[in-house]
Each structure stands twice: as structure tokens, then as C-alpha cells.
Amino acid sequence: MTTYDDRASLTDLTAVVERVRSSVEGVIEGKPEVVRLSLTVLLAEGHLLIEDVPGVGKTMLAKALARSIDCSVRRIQFTPDLLPSDITGVSIWDQQHQDFEFKPGAVFAQVVIGDEINRASPKTQSALLESMEERQVTIDGKTYELPSPFMVVATQNPVEMEGTYPLPEAQRDRFMARVSVGYPSAEAELQMLDVHGGVSPLEDLQPVAHAHEILKLIEAVRAVHVAEPVRRYVVELVSATRRHPDLRLGASPRATLHLLRAAKASAALSGREYALPDDVQALAVAVLTHRLLPTAQAQLNRRGAEHVVREILQSTPVPAAAPQPNGFGPGRGGPGYGSQPPRRL
């Protein structure tokens, strides 16, 4: 049973998040919402896809997040000639021991940075499918567990850029969220010239959190309470994408699970023990959009997947809280949701 002493330790753990946030924001100026989403995905045990035009700091964001945590980090530069064995590893015959020896690939790290993932062939991209979903790699019939925590942070340029391949739907669905860094404001860009003009801030970036602290934070996120009305709200949002006339491919059940986990992580980042519909709404676009495929007619009408998700958010009723006999008062999204009190962290 979890005690109030365990709950008090949550305050100490949230201080870890603040240290990581400050460390990353020291490198990525003027993008606090992007940094928060990255931390949300990390604590929700997901994988992050950073998609934008070249030169806006995609790789810088991935490196800053990885270097802020004292854990194993491997970087993979995706190129057209990259082989699946370069990612997963390969078994090599050992002449001395007369047996095959497994040489781990670049995926055997706690944080894997996949730079320009859509420059590799779909065959090579698919080498990440098992590791991203099951956190393991199977080579020659033998399964190898990956370290924990495990997170893939991949960057990619838009598909219309030359020399890129579109990510397969199965690959995109394994990313919990997609974020676009975007161009900085004039003030942030001016500050960037002062900070980055001499040396890269990554050179002085030191780890501010340990891997075991991140694991404790992940456990705390798992214990965040999500009442039945909020869970139903998540299911209704995802189900609406499967019925929408402008979409030929809606979100999968994996998307439902990812949206719920991300909402729990967002609640924990806000210092709450329970998730609100507001957490779901704030993350729906980032979690769902990259999984959806608009119809040809919708594309002709310039109605993209993001527009459809925002339309679904506006049309789907938001659950309202009711007074509960547990002492919590009514209010939108408060602990009075459902028939059970929130679980203690």
C-alpha cells in the first residue's frame, strides 16, 4: 500500500523534472511547449517524432534531452545505405569459441536518437518496430531485452523534401507524439545569436537527472488516477477519427492507449494526482494527427489531419464532474470524477 510518505516523495521527484526542463530550455530558447511535450512523452514511456524543416533545432532538441539525463545514449544517422543490422545488431561467428557472438546494434541504449529517420529505406526503418513496441530485439531466434527506460527520439524532414521516404503507417503509429519545433521568435533568435554564436551550448550541458530517477517518475505517472468519464472521453475522441468522412485511416487502439498515458504524464507534470479532460485536449493534436490519413478529397480541400482533430475536439462533448460523497466538491475535471477517489501516489 502506498503511504503519504511515498506521496511526499513525489514533490522531490517533480523537482527532477524541473531540472531537466531548465537544462533543455537553456539550449532550445523560446519553445517551452515543445520541451514540455518532450518530457511528457518521456514520462509516459513513449517515443517522440520531431518533424520540421532543416535548421530549426530538431537534432539539438533531441541531444539536449538525452544529455540532460545520466543514461546511455546512442545516435543513428539514417542514410539510404543504412542496414537493419546496423540498428539491431548482428551475430558474428567467433572462431576462437566456435560459436556465434551477438554484437549489439545502436538501438541498445536508453535514449536512441534517430536523426533524419525518413532518409533510410522503409526496410531499415522497420528494424525499429519491435524495439519501439516491445522493448526487445529478436536476432536469429533469440530475444534480447533493451535497457529501461527506453525512448526513441527521431527527427525527420517533411516528406516533400528531396531524398526522403515516407514513414510506414506502422512506424508512425509507434510514436506517441509528433512535435514541430517551428521557427523561433525574433527575440529568441537574437538570444540564440548571443548564446550559440561562440560555442554550442551542448558542449557545457551536464546531466541533471539519473536514469533511476526517471524510472521513479515513470512509476509515479502510472499511478495517476483517470476516472471513467475521462477514459470514455479518450475513447470517444479516437473513435470519432475512424468515422470521420475526411479520413481514410483513423487512429488505432494503440493511439487510445498513448493518449491516455500522455494525459497521465501531463497531469503529473502539473502536480496533480488525477487527469483532466484538459490534459486530453491539450495533447490530442500531438498524439493523433500523425497517425491519420486524409482522403484525397480532403487534401484537395486543404483539410489536413490537424484540422480534423481540432474539429473533433470541438464537436465531442466534454465530461462534466458531479458532486461525490467522498468529500470532494463538484467542478470540471476535479477529483470528483467517477465513483472512486483518486489513487495516492
TrEMBL record:
CDD domains: AAA (cd00009)
Chain spans, region Disordered: 316-345
Pfam families reported in the protein's UniProt record: AAA_3, AAA_lid_2
Coiled coil location: none
Protein name per Swiss-Prot or TrEMBL: ATPase
Keyword set, alphabetical order: ATP-binding, Nucleotide-binding
Family, similarity comment: Belongs to the MoxR family.
Composition skew (Gly residues), residue ranges: 328-337
InterPro entries according to UniProt: ATPase_AAA-3, CbbQ/NirQ/NorQ/GpvN, ChlI/MoxR_AAA_lid, P-loop_NTPase
ChlI/MoxR AAA lid domain sequence ranges: 240-311
Record GO terms (molecular function): ATP binding; ATP hydrolysis activity
Domain ATPase AAA-3: 47-176
